[in-house]
Amino acid sequence: MKLAIMQPYFFPYLGYFDLIHRTDRWIVFDTAQYIRHGWVNRNRILHPNTGWQYIAAPLRKHHRNTPIADIFVKEGRDWRDRVCGQLVHYRKRAHYYEATADLVRDCLDNDEPSLARLNIAILDKICRHLRIPFRYEFFSDMNLSLGPVAGPGDWALRISEALGASEYVNPPGGEALFDKAGFEKAGIKLTIQRFENMTYRCDGYDFEPALSIVDVLMWKSSSAVLQYLEASAECQSHFEGPSDGMMPGCEGELH
Fold this sequence. Notes:
Number of helices: 9
Strand content: 5-15%
Structural class: alpha/beta
C-alpha cells in the first residue's frame, strides 16, 4: 500500500493531485498547527491584468497554536461569491471557463465550517472531475497508536508503520526531514515525488507556473490533465527502474 500524508490545501496546485494519483491511501494531517501565509486557506490564480492573485477562504479568529482541525472559515456566502467572481476574467479567453467555473461553484456550495473538511470536500470533487481515486482519512479521527515521534520527519514513518504501508511517498520539499535508514529498517520504501510542472498556453496572459488547479482546468481539459498525471507517474516509475535510459516524453514537458 502506497501512503501519503499531507495537510489539507485549498484548491492546490497540480503536483498535489499528482501525489494523490500515485498513492493508494491519503492521510489528512489535520493535527498540525495552522501556519499563516501557507496553502491551507489560500492559493493563486491569474490576475486579470498581470501576474497572479490569491483566492482565499477567510478564517474566524483563533489562537496562534490552533491545529488545522480546529480552524473554521467565516460564515456566509460573501467570500465564496468573491472567489467565484475572481474567475470571471477567464471567461473571454479560457476554453474551459464554463466547466471550471461550475466546478468551483459546486465546490464552494458547501456550508461546512471546518477548513480542513471543506478543503477535503473540494479535493474530493476535483478528483472526481479528473477521475482520480481519492481514499482519505482524517488523522484526528484515527486514534492510532504510534511509536516515538522525536521530530517532524518521524510522523510519516510512525504512521506508515501503524498502517502497514509498504511505501511512503512525499513531495521533494520535505526530503531532508526523513530518516531514510529508519524507513529502510522498518521495511518501508521511501519515495520522493518527482513532478515537473505542467506548462500550457494562456491566451492573452503570461504563463505563471504552479498556480492552483483552478487555473490549469481553465486551459486544459480534465482528460488532458489526467493524461499528464498518468505520464508523470510513468516517468517516476521509469526513473526508479533499472534502466539507464529515459522514457520518451520524460525530458522537459510531459504531454
